[in-house]
């Protein structure tokens, strides 16, 4: 037997190692005492399943952190303006908000600035660098300046009023 026999394919794509796997045999019952033990085991399994279900539900529901809106902060140095487009309007329904930000700002600074300015809890920040674009008017050629854009995801239940109604 060579070292590679384990990986040779046989029977329609199955490996030899998969073919020779022996199934686990159930235990044989010895009488009346084992029926009682089986009932206890079934009850324990049900209790464990219920506990695991409760733990999963607790993890799924995230309570928003209490974030206070600050009266004075340096958020205006980091957040230049909200980026209002049709796409950003659709993203706002999904709890994502788009801002034009300072070219030197990082994710932590943007997160802190949004929390200070709007008083909401931020879950995630994504940053995109939009490059400058060439524009022409007759013979003269110029450039439309690029900018840095941040997509901020808020914790479920939080909301920002960007456009006053």
Number of helices: 5
- Our Rg estimate from Cα atoms comes to 30 Å
- Strand pairing plus helix content: what structural class? alpha+beta
Give the biggest beta sheet.
4 strands, antiparallel
The strand line-up of the biggest sheet is 3-4-8-5
Keywords: Ribonucleoprotein, Ribosomal protein, RNA-binding, rRNA-binding
Pfam families: Ribosomal_L23 (PF00276)
Function: One of the early assembly proteins it binds 23S rRNA. One of the proteins that surrounds the polypeptide exit tunnel on the outside of the ribosome. Forms the main docking site for trigger factor binding to the ribosome.
Family: Belongs to the universal ribosomal protein uL23 family.
SSE topology:
Layout: E1 9-10, E2 14-15, H1 16-19, H2 32-60, H3 75-78, E3 79-82, H4 86-93, E4 96-101, H5 107-118, E5 122-130, E6 133-137, E7 140-144, E8 147-154
Antiparallel strand pairs: 1-2, 3-4, 4-8, 5-8, 6-7
Tell me what you see in this structure.
- The structure is a single chain.
- This protein has 165 residues and is α+β, with helices and mostly antiparallel strands.
- It has a domain at 75-154: Alpha-Beta Plaits.
- The protein is built from five helices and eight strands.
- It has helices at residues 16-19, 32-60, 75-78, 86-93, 107-118; strands at 9-10, 14-15, 79-82, 96-101, 122-130, 133-137, 140-144, 147-154.
- The protein has a four-stranded antiparallel beta sheet with strand order 3-4-8-5. Strands 1-2 form a two-stranded antiparallel sheet.
- Strand 1 and strand 2 form a beta hairpin.
- The radius of gyration is 30 Å and the shape is flat.
- Pfam families: Ribosomal_L23.
- Keywords: Ribonucleoprotein, Ribosomal protein, RNA-binding, rRNA-binding.
- One of its GO terms (cellular component) is ribonucleoprotein complex.
- One of the early assembly proteins it binds 23S rRNA. One of the proteins that surrounds the polypeptide exit tunnel on the outside of the ribosome. Forms the main docking site for trigger factor binding to the ribosome.
